[in-house]
């Protein structure tokens, strides 16, 4: 098995899952709680079938550790990417930015508009 521990919490995991077999297990952890990711329905063990190798995105569970394990020959995966939950500071900066734009628009509208005449 292979364990990957992340420095923060994520909500999405993407990976290219090669040779999807029923004996491969992907478990995501968030502290003491865990969830076993269900094997995709294309699992048939045929390495050469067109639907046996594909990219999957797993979401819906916040995690900070992933364990890839196999009870068989191997668990083949590549191109692992994580993403998801923005940090609170990111949300605060976004809200401050929108607030600043709203205030600037309010000030501009309050100042009135100057009439332009062509002479």
SSE topology sketch:
Blueprint: E1 2-18, E2 24-30, E3 33-37, E4 54-70, E5 76-83, H1 88-110
Antiparallel strand pairs: 1-4, 1-5, 2-3, 2-4
Structure write-up:
This protein is an alpha+beta fold. Helices cover 19% and strands 45% of the residues. The protein contains one helix and five strands. It has a five-stranded antiparallel beta sheet, with no helix packed on it. β2 and β3 form a beta hairpin. The radius of gyration is 24 Å and the shape is elongated. The model has no long low-confidence stretch (mean pLDDT 77).
What key attributes describe this structure?
1 helix, alpha+beta, five-stranded antiparallel β-sheet, 119 residues
Elements, N to C (H/E): EEEEEH
Helix content: 10-25%
DSSP summary: helix tally: 1
Q: What Rg is obtained from the alpha carbons, in whole angstroms? A: 24 Å
The rounded distance between the terminal residues' Cα atoms is 81 Å
